[in-house]
Amino acid sequence: MALSWICLSANNFRPTVGVVEINPDFSLYQIDANYSMKYLLLHEISHILGFSRFVFQNLNFIYSETVNGEEIFYINSTKVIEKAKIHFNCENIKGIALENQGGDGSAGSHWEARYMLGDYMISTDYPEVVISDITLAYFEDTGFYKVNYYSGGLFRFGKNQGCAFLEEKCVKDNGKSTSFTNDFCLEEYGPFCGSSHISRGFCLILEYSEKVEVNHYENELMGGLDVADYCPVSYAYDEDLYDYYVFPSNCYFGFNYLEGEEIGDKSLCFESSLTLNKDTSTDNNVESMCYRLECDKNNKVFNVYVNDSIINCPGNETILQDPNGFKGQIKCPDYNIVCSSKTWCNELFDCINKKSEADPETFYYNKNNEEKDDSNSNLKPNTLAIPLVFIVILTTFLLFLKVI
Ligand SMILES: [Zn+2]
User: Fold this and answer.
1) Tens-digit pLDDT profile for residues 8-58
2) How far is ligand 1, taken at its centre, from the CA of residue 108, in Å?
3) I need a labelling partner for 123 at 20 to 30 A (CA). Which of 48, 230, 309, 392 fits?
4) Which regions of 10-119 does DSSP assign to beta strands (E)?
5) How much is the pLDDT for 1?
6) Tell me: the pLDDT tens digits for 203-256?
């Protein structure tokens, strides 16, 4: 859909001139086309600003390892490692892998989606688009830019899951179990929110026409999302809505899909079958739904609003059955997943506009009620001066609008 390349660089390899080429067929008639265009330009301009194999190599931020006979490239610059240790809660991390699939245009210039799904610098369109502190750290590492970490903490894929998230298989036992229940799913086409909970979806498990490159199932044709090393992850529905929306499943600006849902700047995705109809003799199906929520930072709990009734979520990941006069169930994610913004935001540009950083108090938490080493819990993200990256993007975007 778009291409970008660096035309000219300074002696220190800082890019000074670049080109973004947008496919003229790019659709602008969908209701949320302004968001998709902003995301697309943010991605392409970031390549020009330095997120490219050319710059990785010239700054010596890259190393390779042979894994299962294939050469995998990793970024290991200082702040990337620092932020990745905090994000994954893994002290042993040596680097973040780059995408190895997708040919010359994608491989080597994007994050590997198996570890960075949802970050805006992966190689594919994905229903959740967020900025991670890890990507911002890369730009700071180049020395070309000062960076504000206005990520809102929305990047939640693998958050606090430990080194096991990076080292172990995403699912085990022929896809019947996983240790990472916020990130990977088990039930084919079952309701499953994106790991950042900003998008509804279902569990993507497909039968491919050829054997998949990374096996998770006895059936060698079966696999999840290809660029995520075929792991089963959340994916958006519904195909028909794509005529009207680029991101129909988004809880911030998407489509109000099911009764009781609320789309908006305070909503996130929950897996729920709640209904007020107490006469229902059979249980409703669980669906992934957008509900409004409100975080209580003092008590580390949150309220979910369904049809103007309040449901109190307790803080740790819990399934509530028939809460507060409702029939059905709702899965409350961990407080530290859904309340991770210092100032509330649930969309990438919303977080930048509100200057919202990740809340460091949500970096480490007890997973499965096990004691965790929280010796690093005082680490705070750096705050620095000008949101340079964003200004450049916005200026280019405005110029672009003027041109068309
Ligand atoms: Zn790209």
Assistant:
1) 999 899 999 999 998 877 777 888 888 999 999 999 999 999 999 999 999
2) 10
3) 392
4) 15-22, 62-67, 70-75, 96-97
5) 66
6) 999 999 999 999 999 999 999 999 999 999 999 866 677 778 888 899 999 888
Q: Token digits for 97?
A: 């892998």
- Distance (angstroms) between ligand 1 centre and the Cα of 254 equals 24
What is the DSSP secondary structure assignment for residue 38, as one 8-state letter? H
Q: Are 190 and 202 in contact (CB under 8 A)?
A: yes
Is the whole-model pTM more than 0.85?
Answer: yes
Cα separations in angstroms, 149 against 134, 337, 382, 384: 10, 18, 7, 8
Distances (CA, A) of 209 to 110, 129, 206, 221, 223: 26, 28, 10, 7, 11
pLDDT tens string 70-79: 899 999 999 9
Contact between 24 and 18 under an 8 Å Cβ cutoff? The reply is no
- From residue 380, alpha-carbon distances to 87, 357, 361 in Å are 12, 10, 9
Structure tokens at 247: 């991101």
d(Cα 119, Cα 10) in Å, to the nearest integer? 28
Instruction: Give the chain's length.
Output: 404
**ω into 283 cis (within 30 of 0):** no
Ligand 1: centre distance to CA 272 (Å): 35
Please give the structure tokens belonging to residue 183.
């990130």
Q: Which of 346, 306, 316, 305 is nearest to 199 (CA)?
A: 346
Per-residue buried b or exposed e for 335-352, using 16+ beta carbons within 10 Å of the residue's own CB: bbbbbbbbebbbbbbbbb
- Nearest in space to 73 (alpha carbons), one of 64, 84, 82, 81: 64
pLDDT score of 391: 45
Task: Please tell me whether residue 113 adopts helix, strand or coil conformation.
Answer: helix
Look up residue 6 and give its amino acid. I
The Cα–Cα gap between 255 and 237 comes to: 11
Enumerate helices (H) and strands (E) in the chain, giving the number of each: 10, 15
Ligand 1 mean position, distance from CA 122 (Å): 7
